Amino acid sequence: MVERAPRDPADWSSLRDLVRSDLEPLVGAIDQDGLYPEAVLRRFGEAGLFAHHVTGEAGGGLWNAIAGMAVVGEACLSTAFAVWCQDACAWYLSNSANTALRDSLLPEVAAGRQLGGTGLSNPMKAYAGIDTVRLTGERVSGGYVVTGVLPWVSNLGDGHVFGAIFSVPGRTGNVMALLRCGQEGVSIAQRSHFCALEGTRTVAVMVKRAFIADEQILADPAEPFLVAITPGFILLQAGMALGLIRGAVAAMREADASHGAINAYLPERPDLFEKALATLEATVAELAATPHRNGPDYMRPLLEARLAAADWSLRAANAAMLHAGARGYLRDATAQRRLREAYFVAIVTPSIKHLRKELSEIEQGRGCMRLWKSIAAAG
Questions:
Q1: Architecture category of domain 117-221 in CATH
Q2: 223-377: CATH number
Q3: Which of 4, 67, 15, 87 is nearest to 44 (CA)?
Q4: Where does the pLDDT of residue 9 fall: very low under 50, low under 70, confident under 90, or very high at 90 and above?
Q5: Which residue has the higher pLDDT, 243 or 377?
Q6: Relative to the CA of 378, which of 53, 136, 137, 314 has its CA 20 to 30 Å away?
Q7: Tell me: the pLDDT tens digits for 240-278?
Q8: Nearest 5°: CA angle at 161, between 72 and 65?
Q9: Model-level pTM greater than 0.85?
Q10: Where is the Acyl-CoA dehydrogenase/oxidase N-terminal domain (predicted)?
């Protein structure tokens, strides 16, 4: 059983201390040199950061996970994204009906002793009709033999685990499993370099006739399980946005200390973003209280909140850059880093265009995301 995480917001003081002492000195190297903050992530796990949403608490657990991620995101979005990957992996395990897998690995993931990620970007886009499922499995005795390539999966390394979905020819429903980097047939390689989020250990995953044992299966068929976990999967991403917006506001305030007189002429000032942040936090906290609801009446405001989080991130980071002026254009400036990070909030799955597509489906009365329709097809 995962140890119960504290719910008192005052507990963030210890997390903030850890961010200041262990993370902030590394932010420049994470952003510019692609340093993966593995030791910091493990310390976060020791402090209980990855356990908030998997303790069995109703309501507050998921919001605490989001709020804790936001504390990290105030300083560094790369690390906040790695926190989200770890949280998503724990979320899969905590909701799986595979009790043996859950009981053996969830305590390790929640404590940061086992690091992991999520390979659901490709299948989420596939269910939306934007992509096709890249992994294919063949049923054999005791499991599946799986082959394919996932181009970008984050928070990975030797021995790390990640959730992935593969199709099975001749079957309608897909299968979701937990794969391990380095197991026979599963290899990783860094094939791309990015303008931001370089320190997230984002790699290509090559799966070549890997045997995925039944003991590794999170859900079969995957679709009903995905419907159950998708609200939490999306809501957790709000932690990155909330932290980035708060960090951008801090950068604006810092710029005002020396350039407040001229910054006063800018159309979007810190107060605007602080009010938007308070509203967004309240909305996300309310949605996080019931993360297993999944009808259109719930998913529509959830998707709208995630879209608003991306939009406000872009606006806040842009305003921070304008407040900083020429100093924000320096290579190591906080303002330009926050701007590059904000674009990630807007393009990570589900991206702004993906969210708008799903909201359009609801608006036109076509149901709540194509994924929901796959349940009936999967039988």
A1: Beta Barrel (2.40)
A2: 1.20.140.10
A3: 15
A4: very low
A5: 243
A6: 53
A7: 999 999 999 999 999 999 999 999 999 999 999 999 999
A8: 30
A9: yes
A10: 14-112
